[in-house]
Amino acid sequence: MDINEDNLLAHRRAGVLLHITSLPNENGSGNLGVEAYNFVDFLHNAGLKVWQTLPLGVPHGDGSPYQCLSAHAGNPGLICLEELKQKGWLQEAGQCDTCETGDDDFLNCLLAKTYTGFENLASVEEKQQYVNFCTNKSNWLDDYALFVALRNEFSQQCWNQWPEPLKERKPAALKEARRRMVSAIEIIKFEQFLFYRQWMALKEYANNKDVLLFGDIPIFVSYDSADVWANRAVFKLDKTGQMSVVAGVPPDYFSVTGQRWGNPHYDWNYLKKSRFAWWNDRLRSQLEMFDILRIDHFRGFEAAWEIPASEDTAINGEWVKAPGHELLAAVKKEFGNIPLVAEDLGIITAEVDQLRTDFNLPGMKILQFAFGDTNSNPYLPHNYDHNCVVYTGTHDNDTTLGWYNALNDHDKQRIYRYLGHPQVSMPYLLIGTAFSSVANLAIVPMQDILELASEDRMNTPGTIEGNWKWQFSWAQLTEAQVTRISEIVKVFSR
Questions:
Q1: Cα angle at 73 between 71 and 79, to 5 degrees?
Q2: In 14, 88, 196, 300, which residue has its Cα 20 to 30 A from 266's Cα atom?
Q3: CB burial of residue 306 (10 Å; 0-12, 13-18, 19+)
């Protein structure tokens, strides 16, 4: 496989959707350590050529990777401490006198110890790599590190609750804060260095094993983020920095009241005047980390659902146009043709389809949405073209087995009738359907390979409890499942 080929999305491939936190780990959520490399080996050995993850940013307290403190920074919680111990930089792992094991303060304490070890033991070359990293990422890293240091100082309060001079980024206040918190800022930058160092090593390993890394970009960013604090002109905010409208989607398959995400909307007039520099910077960071990118909620580039900030639900919003064509033209001018996938689920209009096709971006097909009452359903395989990505389900869906078990007998019979009454059971029936389709790329969640039911789903949209916590163990993966998925890959030339 040549990751420099003209169009990575133009060839038949198959892959797995699994977030890093879902990797096995006896001591907490998954990380960028040995199990990540083991997962690449599993993919390679099975003939699966793509690993799709969820966004890798720094989440808020709810753990959602779609609401992060930065559009650029990586989650320090994904750093493998064991690798730091092996380097000799962390010599007291597991020991922190003032913090509870496993919480954020505990991790921060250990990473601070790692910074001390790095200063004392790192080679000249490694120290220069750190200096180069800070210089190369300074366009976002300086603001992010100061933002996190201040947020920690103010007990995780949102930036709009900070003292006025810091909230308004008065130069004298920022200068004094950088002086006062110089040590804390340095450690936050060092955490990012460690994250990127480990991620890029994993990416190199994966690419050498013929595995592409497939990332996810939420179209909107969190209001409580370094991006909004440092770039208020990019967003629709009033003079005091407050939001009058917030992002979301109207009632749909997932929720009868819609989804009120609460993110700020973009000030597209400002972005047009600045030639979309903020978006190009964001994409540049992600293109360094991933081979393929998905734009979550792509339809927001054509029109986005604006909800009055005073509303508790997403029902009373309106569609407001966005300059998606101009944005994507600016992206193409900056980067050329890049491997972007458009998440075009939900309420999709002819204008959204036209925007996607104008730039030859593959859309998404979800088999769990396919089996309604009409053969014109766009998610039925006979309606696909090559330029799409087919999924059994995504992180927002139930597992395929859970979805199937919840259907009535009539709906189950409709599925088997469409698929020719095969003797294959779920979820491998739907996996085989995805892999046999004409879609260039087929992706299945790891839960489906493991034949897991509803209790193992990753996220239930519209809810805030119990999401983003699922992990698998290698004991769940049988030899029969490995053989089965490998055979499906071979039979359908993926």
A1: 140
A2: 196
A3: middle
Determine, yes or no, domain membership for 166.
yes
Question: Is 163 domain-assigned?
Answer: yes
Query: Can you read off the two tokens belonging to residue 387?
Result: 């330029």
Alpha-helix residue ranges (DSSP H) falling in 169-321: 171-180, 182-208, 226-230, 268-273, 277-289
Residue 106 lies in a domain: yes
Q: Is the dihedral of CA 397, 400, 406, 409 positive or negative?
A: positive
Based on the number of CB atoms within 10 Å of its own CB, is 455 exposed (0-12), middle (13-18) or buried (19 or more)?
exposed
Q: What's the one-letter identity of residue 74? A: G
| Structural domain boundaries enclosing 129 | 71-199
Q: What is the pLDDT of residues 126-183, one digit of tens each?
A: 999 999 999 999 999 999 999 999 999 999 999 999 999 999 999 999 999 999 999 9
List, in sequence order, the alpha helices (H) in 274-381. Answer: 277-289, 324-335, 350-358
Active site residues: 296, 343, 396
Task: Quick: pLDDT tens for 454-484.
Answer: 999 999 987 888 999 999 999 999 999 999 9
* DSSP label at residue 425: P
What tokens were used for 183? Answer: 């040590």
454 secondary structure, DSSP code: G
**Residues contacting 38, CB < 8 A, separation 6+:** 474
SS3 444: strand
* Alpha-carbon distances of 14 from 2, 346, 391, 413, rounded to whole Å: 16, 24, 10, 27
pTM: 0.95
Give DSSP secondary structure letters for 219-237.
Answer: SS--SSSHHHHH-GGGB--
Distance separating the N- and C-terminal Cα atoms of the chain: 12
Amino acid at 64: S
Distance of alpha carbon 19 from alpha carbon 89, whole angstroms: 27
Backbone φ and ψ of 493, nearest 5°: 55, 50
Do residues 390 and 439 touch, judged by C-beta distance below 8 A?
A: yes
Those residues whose C-beta lies under 8 Å from the C-beta of residue 332, and which sit 6 or more positions away, are: 338, 359
In the chain, the number of structural domains is 1
- Give the span between the Cα atoms of 471 and 270, in whole angstroms: 42
Burial label, 350 (beta-carbon count in 10 A; 0-12, 13-18, 19+): exposed
Q: Is the distance from CB of 339 to CB of 292 less than 8 angstroms? A: yes
Contact 18, 493 (CB under 8 A): no
Domain-embedded: residue 40: no
